[in-house]
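pinging the channel bc i need a second pair of eyes. not urgent but kinda urgent?? the chain im working w is below, pasted from the shared doc
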Amino acid sequence: MADLFREVEEDLRRENLEKLWKKYGKLVIALSVAVVLAVGGVQAWRVYDQKRQEELSDRFAAALAEAQGGGAAAAIAALSEFGSPSDGGYAGLAALERARLLAESGDRDGAVALWDRIAADSALGPGFRDIAVLLSVLHQIDTADPEVLRARLEPLAGDAKAFRGSAWELMAVLALRAGDKAGATELYTKISDDREIPAGLRARAAQMLAALKG
């Protein structure tokens, strides 16, 4: 009798499994295939991304070599190809290098315009945008409206900002340009006293303080 009950129980279990498989079997297969494809896709993307980064690195290095060899126009053209979001950080690096080459070639207006575009490009990281602001202001320090330039530097001048030392230095130059010796002295003192600011910048500030006090 026990064997009979066992056979009946096994038949019921088998029947239930068949019903479950008929109902959910395709879903199980689909999920299995999806998992395999997902794992394969991730691996494929990693291989592609590594190759992409190597390609970008080689292209960027070739453009820099072109610039060092004196071919500024060719270098600018090569660097102009880095504009896609998929180019990652190379897009920002290339744009900054293009602006530098334009400035070195005598096209200050073109360089400033490019720095200003970089500064306004939300697709680039804040580091690129802040550097672009500093370079734009630096190359207009003697010609543009001091108040306009100072307003652009203010967001970079907070005590916790990475480029506060450079912003303070440029703001001190603007203060001197406006005849505000006391304001410049205060800014140079802040730079000199801030041990997190690079030593070279602090040394320049100390020299300016000595000159102002003399």
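so Residues 68 and 75 are 9 Å apart (CA to CA). and The chain has two domains: 1-118, 140-214. — does that match what u expected or am i reading it wrong
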